[in-house]
Structure formats: C-alpha cells, structure tokens
Amino acid sequence: MGKRDAHLQALESLLDQFVKTGSEQELVDYLLSNSNLPGPRANLELADAFPDALGKIAQKESHKCWALCMKMLELTVEEAPVNTPEEFVPFCGAVGIGSMGSVQPSFFDQAIVTLRRLAKDSRWRMREAVRMGLQRLAEARARDTLMALESWIDEGDWLEMRAIAATVAMPSLLENEEQAAWALSLHRKIFDRVLETQDRKSEQFRVMRKALGYTLSVVVSALPREGFEFMTQLIEPQDKDVKWILRENLKKKRLEMNFPVEVAEIKNLLVL
C-alpha cells in the first residue's frame, strides 16, 4: 500500500469517528503529526487524500463534513503561521471545501464564495490550497466554475486574479478546446487589468505576476495557435511587467520543446 492509500484509509476511519462522536481532535492530531511541516514541502499525499476521504463520507453526512471544514478554516494566521504543522489544518480545510462543492451540488455556491475569500490569505500555502480546491470544483463542474471565476475579474484584487490564473492552468481542464479557449480569455482579461494599472508595487501584484510567469505557458501549450498570437499581441504595449511574464513563460520546457519555432519568434520580437 502506498503512502497516499495508507493516509486515505486512516482518514476514512478518523472521519467516521468524527461523524459518530462529533469530535474532530483525533483527525486534527493526525493531520498535525503527518504534515511534514516545518519543512520545504507539506505532505501533499495527505493533502490530496483528505478531500477524497471527505468526499466519500460527505455522500451521507454532508452538513457535518462542511461544518468540519469550516471549523478547520477558523485557525487564524496567528494561530497557524506559515510553515507550521498548524497551517496544514486550514490548508486541508480549504481543499476539503472544494471537495464538498464538487460532490454535493448544494454546497457549490458556498464553496466558491469561501474559496474566493481564502484566495486573499497572506499565506502562500493557503493560496495553493485555494487553487487545489477550485480545481476540484472545475473537474466536477467546469462551466459553472469558469463562469464564477470570470465574475471575479472586474472587481477582484490581484490575489483573486492569481487564483483564477492558477486554477485554469490545469492540463486536464484544457484538454477540452472550449475550456482551453475560456482559460485563454480569462488570461486576456487579467492582462488587460495589468496594462490598465500603474499601481504595481504591492506584494499582491508581485504574487500575481509570479503566477502569470508560468500559467500562460500551460494555456498556450493547450491552444498554441491562438496562444502564441496572444503572446505576440502582448509585446506591442512594451510593458516591462508583461515582457517579464512573457520571458518567464518562454523558458518553460512545455513551450521550448514542443514549439521551438514559435518560441524563437516571440523571443526575437521581445529584443526589438
């Protein structure tokens, strides 16, 4: 039995116990002791197994499972600082919210609202948990999730833009041509906002810019003709942040190895 399967089995037992007793303490203790934090990499096998185990239990005990995830999210930045075992609890809670919305349609809208709020979290791991949660929603209900993300763009902050870009940079989602076109359209709208703003000194903007430094290449690799055309269009404004984003994406192997001619053409345009 692999690590993930072992965690899945243990979590199913602990979640069953939670449903019967109403106490989540043993489950939380398991997450804390197996978090791999502090350290460079949290226990992603466990983080992936938790929402799967939760989804199974939620088929019959959806309200209890939702309440559990919301309680896990109550830990504040002060109570669960970056790179501590405690941070892993709300991390799993956020991914669990995505799982709940994906397996129980009645929780979909609440999951979207909750993950949007969490997208603004100052902790980078929590923002990654939001991506993972949103991608679970997208796997189950792609159209509804993409529509929800699109509605964030006009008034959302840079961390919400980061969540949108990171969520749609999912190869399995982009296998569908219509969804790939939608993902490119969302990137286009985010870049429009970037080009419209002069206020780029915030940490939020820096985080969003860093994400765009890889997400665009994922979308372009799925829709190369339209994607490289869009990259060419982005050069015209001669915007330094946009050019940095383009250069970062052109370094990615998924573009360099599969589209060497197109990459060379864009690179040549960038130095003109």
Protein described:
The structure is a single chain. The chain is mainly α and 272 residues long. The chain has 2 domains: 140 residues; 128 residues. 75% of the residues lie in helices and 0% in strands. The protein is built from 16 helices and no strands. Helix 6 packs antiparallel against helix 7, helix 8 runs parallel beside helix 11 and helix 12 crosses helix 13. The longest helix is centred in the last third of the chain and has 20 residues. The termini are far apart.
| Topology pattern, helix = H, strand = E | HHHHHHHHHHHHHHHH
Strand count, sense and barrel status of the largest sheet are: none
- The number of distinct structural domains comes to 2
Give the overall average pLDDT. Answer: 97
Kindly estimate the percentage of residues that lie in beta strands according to DSSP. under 5%
Number of helices: 16
Q: List low-confidence stretches.
A: none
* Total beta strand runs: 0
Helix-and-strand structural type: mainly alpha
Roughly how many Å is the radius of gyration? 20 Å
| Helical content class | over 70%
Tell me the span between the first and last alpha carbons: 56 Å
Shape descriptor reads: elongated
SSE diagram, text form:
Layout lengths: L2 H19 L3 H9 L10 H15 L3 H11 L15 H16 L4 H11 L5 H17 L1 H11 L5 H11 L2 H4 L2 H20 L6 H20 L1 H12 L4 H11 L2 H4 L3 H12 L1
Helix pairs in contact: 1-2, 1-3, 3-5, 4-5, 5-6, 5-7, 6-7, 7-8, 7-9, 8-9, 8-11, 9-11, 9-12, 11-12, 11-13, 12-13, 12-14, 13-16
